[in-house]
Amino acid sequence: MEIKSAEFVISNTDVKKCPKDNFPEYAFIGRSNVGKSSLINMLTGRNGLAMTSSTPGKTMLINHFLINNNWYIVDLPGYGYAKRGHKGQEQIKNVIENYILEREQMTNLFVLIDSRLEPQKIDLEFMEWLGENGVPFSIIFTKADKLKGGKLGNNINNYLSELKKQWEELPPYFVSSASNRLGRKEILNYIEEISKSL
Q1: Which residues pair with 64 in a beta bridge?
Q2: Is residue 51 part of a domain?
Q3: Is residue 90 part of a domain?
Q4: Is residue 124 in some structural domain?
Q5: Which of 43, 47, 128, 146 counts the most CB atoms within 10 A of its CB?
Q6: Rounded distance, CA 107 to CA 101, Å?
Q7: What is the CATH number of the domain that holds 192?
């Protein structure tokens, strides 16, 4: 798939204020600092499209980007950022859950996982919640360029082994790097395949 246009449309915290058209939406979510904005910019080929920040937890809103005038990338708030405080975390949790459970246009949720880390309880619990609610999702392992040698493969295999304890069938997964565009073609082709099947 070729991305010919990508434009910011709206930010909000209320799922009812999301765009009214019926274009499919591919949402991206992950723990704060997983590299979500960088990945979105890499996929679209637009460096400043999604705001990247050195401060984790900056995305507090649902951000819609219209791609090729016929589908959306949706940038969701990061979860699990401790410095927000309990009230802030609850607000973000509500924004995320309302979008995921109520937004009929959401076609697939990409859960971003930092490939450098051991399996994190918060990610595993989040994916378990998605499964319980029948939410279609895929995994993108980010920051693959930061690992040398066989460490990347080992980390991903460890993660998949951990998932197999909960899941009979593993969700589709991709390996990506925003800095060297690894995974871009595969992720965009996957989105194209899903859109064609709708």
Answers
A1: 10, 74
A2: yes
A3: yes
A4: yes
A5: 43
A6: 12
A7: 3.40.50.300
